[in-house]
Amino acid sequence: MYMIKTPKARRAALSQFPAVVLPAQEAAQGRYDDVDVAIVMESTYPYLKGGVSAVVHDIVTHNQDLTYGIIHIAWDSDAPQEDLYDVPENVLWVRPVYLSMQEHRHDFMAVSSKDLGMTPVQRRALAHRVFDALYALSERREVEPLWELIDEGFNERTRTYPLWALLGTREFMEVLSERMPQLGMSLADSFWTLRNFLSLAYALLSETMPRARVYHAHTTGYASLLGAAAARDHNTSFLLTEHNLYVRDTVNTLLDRNMALSITSEDYRTFDVTPEHRAWMAWWIEMGHFCYPSAALITYLYPTAITEAARLGTDIDKAVVVPNAMVIEEFDEKYRARLAAREHLVQQGSDHTWNLVYIARIVPIKGLLDLLSSLDLLRRHGFPHLHLDVLGPTEHVPEYYEACLAKIESLGLQDHVTIRGTVNVRDMLDQFDLLVLPSYNEGQPIVVLEAMAAGIPTVGSDVGGMRQLVKDGLATVDGRTIGPCGELVVAGDVEQMADSIRAVIGDMDLYAEYADNARTRVQEFFQMHEIMSSYNEIYRTVGDITDMHNLATTELDHLAPVEAK
Asked: Is the peptide bond preceding residue 46 cis, with omega within 30 degrees of 0?
């Protein structure tokens, strides 16, 4: 294993390898070369578009001196396998990992208790060890007992018995009834729930991953578990990036809660939920507790995410801030067009039709139904010259899309709203005066950074990293403070959204100030070359297992809001 440090050396090394090998070919060839960084993702790059995929593509394209592999976790082999990004040559392979037991039925389902090679006494002792390890994690945050079982019973290179075969034994059922009555389930339901958990663990942990100097997981959960295990298996390093708080979002989705609500480590013990939901909450929360200690470093997009993650068990001493970024020069033409549009806007005065844009999937979490209500309020309160363009996929939740169409018709907004579906957003940015983002949950939206680079203000929900992007004053290295570039509202508050839109478009001086600040904030704090340089430094530092304290301290100071300094 090596690090390629110069473009000449990189080209020489890459000439030894064919173009990136995608899953269908790779399954037949069974070949994966060592890489500097293996990026571990769930159902995203390079087969699905989206914010996280875009970030990963930026990482691999802007760090050409490193070689990459992609470990792509999907449900089964019917998942998309078309490369939508034209992955660059320094991505040497994409390695699929499937969660569905239908992909593993010959290995997972075919074993029997005989394959353990143990006596009844030994099987009972092993069952107790399983529950001892689970309690060590949940009660004392001790991870080694569980790692020992993974090494003995899952890891392809080290296992001495198939741990999953224990499920089919009488001893396991007897110990289950003794050790886990607090689940509040019948014995059968307890068994099938634990079987689900064990099958997912098998899918992630039973095969040896290609070797990398750094395994970089882009979510907690399955990607984190696989990345931590692969790094442990190869005695290399595990890096975790939490673009959003995966555990919080997964639990809120499970419970059908408002996505803006926080989750803490203890909630699965105290929430009034069904026994099945409690078990799944424990699964996700304790998986975070299990994986966090393995990370050499944990990166977050914005400072307040660290505070919230601490309530889920992260180690704040390992936490650094590495935000998303833009290549600002790519927006120069759109920015010049927006400057000209602002002059025209001033000339038109009250006759100007304000062009608002919503850029997101049409799904409940993004809040389009709320925005339509806000638009109706604005129209009824004397702002008739408004038009909303809706840019984004419509097919993800068809019933929600239909509800939006019905609301447009019922409110008589047909002349004020145009749904364009999936389009090239960057090509259209100069057409819009204001970005509106009524989401219930966000990390650090790429679309907001794109709008900012083009000099477009934002009115959005105060969720995730929106405050850092839009509202907090940010201090430059030379002592200047860059003010806000828009307004933030409480998610779901349609009246506050309407009032904030009215405040921005009703005051041309304020609008111009926000537009100027938007561009300046990207120039000063979210430049692609600076952020990608941070990733490169992190990879090299983590890969060499050097001291992380100074790096963490430096990065945490970057992009902190002025009032927190």
From this structure: yes
